[in-house]
Amino acid sequence: MKAEQIIKIMESHYPLSCQEDWDHCGLQAGNIHTEVNKIMIGLDADLQTLQEAIDAGCQMLITHHPFLFNTLTLDTTTPIGRFIEKAIKHNIVVYSAHTSLDKISMNRWLMEALGCLNIEDADESNITKKGVLPDTMGMYEFLDYVKKAFNIPSVNYAGKVKEVSTVGICGGSGGDLIDEVAPQVDAYVTGDLKYHSGLKASDYNILLVDVGHHVEVIMVHKLKELLEKEIDCEIVEATSPGYFKGY
């Protein structure tokens, strides 16, 4: 199967027209006419994941996070330059679906992991989602529930509420959307929150929960399941371990 055909299937689910203006979804490197027998899916387009794809004998790497955002000078002494050099040398096609996937699937998958019902868009860009928990929970019960749902050892939180029934979620960095989402929910779950985001928890009388960026790794298995129904290639999952560790 040609890489071009796989890209068309990806874009039938996640059109490039859905990405944010600042984003760079789509082909990152490689020849679209490459014959693909094996695909790796990973969260990040980084050197570690690329090496995994090479070692696994893949001809294509599909990721959520792209490595290209700005104008590029191809300097092979930099990490991005080495990434492109290695991808070309090993004839690996690299494709990323970032905010295009965020709008259509990512946050719905995260909401479903929490068991939420009545899922709908929660902001003008259609990235964040909101929904209702299957049962109303106390605050600490909800925090434990989130940790278990996303298989993470801890969360950071700000604010204090008696009960949580309605939830908003934005995988990745959703701090800029607090003002839009907070009035609609009891708790807003996102990642990469800044110190002063905590003030808004009391401003809006909600619970802010920072689960980190890596919960988006849910897309690796979910996208694999989706593509296996339509693509006649072997598909494998990258380890995608995340960059930060607790100590």
TrEMBL record:
Source taxon at top rank: Bacteria
Keywords from the UniProt entry: Metal-binding
Positions that bind a divalent metal cation 1: 65, 102, 213, 216
InterPro entries in UniProt: DUF34/NIF3
Annotated a divalent metal cation 2 binding sites: 64
Keyword Metal-binding found: yes
One term under GO cellular component: cytoplasm
GO molecular function terms listed in the Swiss-Prot or TrEMBL record: metal ion binding
Pfam families reported for this sequence: DUF34_NIF3
Family assignment from sequence similarity: Belongs to the GTP cyclohydrolase I type 2/NIF3 family.
Protein's recorded name: GTP cyclohydrolase 1 type 2 homolog
